[in-house]
Amino acid sequence: MTHIELRGVQKFFGDVQVIKDMNLVIEDNEFIVMLGPSGCGKTTTLRAIAGLETIDEGDILIDGKAVQHLKAADRDIAFVFQSFSLYPHMTVYENIAFPLRATRQSKAEVDRAVRQMAEILQITPLLQRRPSALSGGDMQRVAIGRALVRSPKALLMDEPIGALDATLREEMRTEIKRLHIKQGSTTIYVTHDQVEAMALADRIVIMNEGVLQQVGTPDEVYTHPANLFVAQFVGSPVMNVAEARITEEKDEARVFMPGAEHGFPFPRKLIALLEAGKASPDAISLGVRPEGVLVEREKREGYLPVEAHIIEPLGSHDIVDLQIGDRFLRARTKSGFVPRPGEQVWARIDPAQAHFFDTRSGNSLGVRL
Amino acid sequence: MAAVQTSRQRLANRLAIAAVIVVTLIFLAPIYWIGSTAFKPRALATTVPPTVLFQPEITPFIKLFTKRVQLTRPVEEEVYEAAPWWERRIYDGGERVLRVGDSVQLSGYPDRFKNSLIVAVTSTLLAVSMGTLTAYGFSRFRVPGEQDWLFFILSTRMLPPVVVAIPMFLMYRAVGMTDTHIGLIILYTAFNLSFSVWLMKGFIDEIPKEYEEAALVDGYTRMQAFFKIVLPEATTGIAATAVFCFITAWNEYAFALMLTNRDAQTAPPFIPAQVGSGLTDWTAIAAGTFLFLLPVAIFTFLLRNHLLRGMSFGAIRK
Q: What is the pLDDT of residues B166-177, one digit of tens each?
């Protein structure tokens, strides 16, 4: 049972604040992914939990006990580095046995634990090799083995598969997930790859410039981003965002893209919801993911005429740039649905998939239609 | 085009190899000279042009290790016959070996050689271990004024050592450290330390700090991480640094000449001083020099693999 909590954690590097008032609770057996662009403070947070970095203010609690003054060795936490950091002068066996040798275990116990770990990770044939003779994937398996062999309270991973090539990365991602399901240890995983985060996490913690932006399940983060940063960082292709003008008609609301003649129809309650969200009418941004832009080849009720510009055929689907007003909306369509660039098609925005943000603060206005 | 390139490259290669051979020969020439002189009969040592082909003999080494005086009159037949083979060589050269009672009096060479070993080995161990620890500190921790400290450490090497010879001599005399092992060891350690710190810092900077961090989270103290992870990773650098420190301490002449005269004297000031009983005996001096070269040669040979990697450090990613 491991429960990790951060309370009001602050960290400075000189004058630069890299962690700003961080509060976070991680439950037992949870797989948490910290996601953010490079330099957002996610790795520093991870290193602070491990005890590799001091913090300037706040508390880090493991199982209710403040550990910020404890040395890394006394926190019983394992760490997997991006560079794997396998000791080059030791064999794979010695690498995995190394954490156990710090404890007073008998040779037989160490041997049993190492072999069992090797069995789980399917690296038994490699035990006598040196790290330099391993493939990237195997290095990663050994690094995870070394981390898990002493059954630590929590496993921290800093972009553990970032150094691998794309195919291997996908394979290892599945393997890490499988291992977590099997071993079930509290895991904090740092990455800047949102696909990795969505695939692995029980909950995603999104950070930017040292500030925690949103904590939630992959689904929550994707469907209800807390602000523009999260909205545009999570999801590929990136969410369409544009400043929007909203007018009230007799039985519906209309949302105008910049420079557009016509507005997209929305349910009338949008007006009330925006007011409830304390939106200032001149600073509302509309966000919609490409799959929230519905495209038809013939005119239909509520659809606006748009011109297709660029078509990116991605095999399973196409991404089409549609011009409306002075902006482009990226839409996701079936393959070949829009045959040629330059074609006129009709589009509308699915109100259920639309997001509204305060343009100035970037925060979500909490509108759910 | 490609063919032109290759033939040009081949020519460049050959030129490079030729240059290497020429330079190597230039460097090896004095060693050959010393080596051959050490096995020459005394009469051939100073001939011009030098004698290349000769019957090698061991007499210079016998002279090197014994105390001798010149014979005033020819040795008696029965004494000569009764003498062991090596003593007859001395008689042949018109000298006799000094004895106290029955035992042969040894020259000062073995003791001086021993002094050299004690001083060079100890000061190398000290300079390398202190240098490694200091370099580790500079490499891994935030040291206030780090650049200034490092510059200060390096600056101790910026003036020619002979400038401090007189003050050093007076200081050593004042504290009674002239002609002591510890005196020379301190001096050589201090002299090598700056070099050792700078070289080791370069090597330790190359070792990713994640290795230690991995050990730290795996339950080890920083000290344990240093000994179990950093030291094994730094062996190349340590070997290279040790060779350089050892060579400096082993070959040092000026301070050894000035600060020692008997008990702690090292081989370098002693070897040229042994002039034999008559004229300067170049064969014995060459023999002394030849033996003196061996420890450095052996030490370097043993560490040659580390040394080659050490010299190209930074150029190759491990």
A: 999 999 999 999
